[in-house]
Amino acid sequence: MRAAPLVVLAFLAACNAQPSPVDTEGADPRVVQARGTLAESEQATIAIFETASPSVVLVISGGRGPGGFNNVEISSGTGFVWDEAGHIVTNNHVVQAQEIIVRPPGGEDIRATVIGRAPQYDIAVLRLERPTQARPLALGTSSDLRVGQATFAIGNPFGFDQTITSGIVSALGRQLPTQEGREIADVIQTDAAINPGNSGGPLLDSAGRVIGVTTAIFSPSGAYAGLGFAVPVDTVARVVPQLIANGRAPIAGIGIVAADQSIATRLGVEGVLVWQTANGSPADQAGLRGTDPRGGVLGDVIVQAEGAPVRRLADLTNTLDRLGVGANVNLTIRRGDRQVQVSVPITDISAPQETQSSGK
To answer: Whole-prediction pTM value?
Structure first.
């Protein structure tokens, strides 16, 4: 019973004790150090972005529903101002819907119309319903690119607009298949981060000039994996004026239907096996012979074009594209046990033509 007062006294003493001093070391605000001048490489990247980004637009496409884009799947990509008239260049696969909207940086949505398509190059041109104040981007050339030089991609990956990524030219001369069964030649490979939504945007060099139009990525997951591709600007600069003027770009050809590569391989054929020729086509008039399946007679096999080996159809079509409609292509063909040299005019094969399958 006598211990209770001692407990009370101990409690009161504890209440009256002075608190332990608080350690305030490090609690004062840190002083911000002056950064100094940005590195030249940083300044250069900033200048490229600030100069080019106002001319890069978001392209939104979707089907027409009761409320415009209501109840439809909407996709987005990128485009950029091509000329003083305000035409927008983008990828053909970006604008496959009925309704197209272009959104300039910080601006209002503008309806757009596709006035030209070149599926064989995955390029399309848009005309806006009303003008935008954005200036056209400076054009470079893809003919003198070198592996290792800097690249910059501006676009709208995953809908995040006005994004810049940087890298290098990883490789040149790549071949990229298109929906038309052809291949785009001399495609630029870059490791600048390119993701879904970047399609149709500009690939720039260190001078801020357009050197390509980003068009595809290689990725098992669908996201950036270090392999991006761009249509070379020399091809774009050749095709876009044709799209603006005519709504289409000629498809260079000689009027043949080539056998499927798997069939040619099974037959032990190395080259382009002529399966059919179009009546009255340059190939027909030059005497190229198609395959006669019933008689078991193989047609001509194109093994060289302009002295370069032809191992697959892309080798031939790339040569035809390079020479252009109106030129002649010199072919070496294997006919049975002998080789024959022929010169065949290149024509625009985009219009349907009648074909024949005889082994003439």
So the answer is: 0.77
